[in-house]
Specification:
209 residues; alpha/beta; 6 helices; globular; binds adenosine-5'-triphosphate; plasmid; ATP-binding
Length: 209
Amino acid sequence: MAEGLRLEHVSITLPDRRQIRLNDAIRPGEVLSLMGPSGSGKSTILSALIGALPQEIPFRGRIILNSRDITMLPTEARRIGILFQDDLLFPHLSVGGNLAFGLTSNIEGRATRQAEVNRALNDIGLTGFYDRDPATLSGGQRQRVALARVLLSKPQALLLDEPFSRLDTILRQQMRDLVFSRTRNLPVLLVTHDPEDAQAAGGRIVRLG
Ligand SMILES: Nc1ncnc2c1ncn2[C@@H]1O[C@H](COP(=O)(O)OP(=O)(O)OP(=O)(O)O)[C@@H](O)[C@H]1O
């Protein structure tokens, strides 16, 4: 398989000497759910994938994204997006300003950037939110903005780190639908404690620990 995210013979040794081993591939449009008890190494795997593993945690194996070996690349060159439980927005910028922030280097011209951000906001049901102060957003709206931000960065793979766990039941369902419908062309790795998240994702489940 050339397209997608491959973890080839990945082995990570945790500080207490436990080993995590993964040899798997996620196709574009597939969601692989990673489950396991607290401390089993789920966040450590995400750190390894984005290239942010602490020096003291040894990593072996290769990470291949769309045929490109990204194992040794710095975080910003990997083209992997990540959505967290609690995404932080710059408080001194508007919602639109936050979203435009990451675009400055690759899209020329203020009007073009603004149009691109407005398209992204429309796409996630936040039409007219460009000038809003992030402090006035609800938890669900913040998660939508975080989703728009990660999609605007045009990742080739997406990691989801418990992105639904702070939301109430109804919002959670809506956010799952939104995330999975907007990421159909990407390989997605979902870290979750919630079996319902994994069920909604509809893909395979890998258990750690
Ligand atoms: N930088 C570090 N220094 C020391 N220990 C670490 C470091 N990073 C992770 N660990 C340890 O590695 C183990 C795995 O942690 P990790 O955060 O990956 O687990 P997790 O499955 O994501 O847990 P949770 O579900 O609680 O988020 C834990 O025992 C943790 O204490």
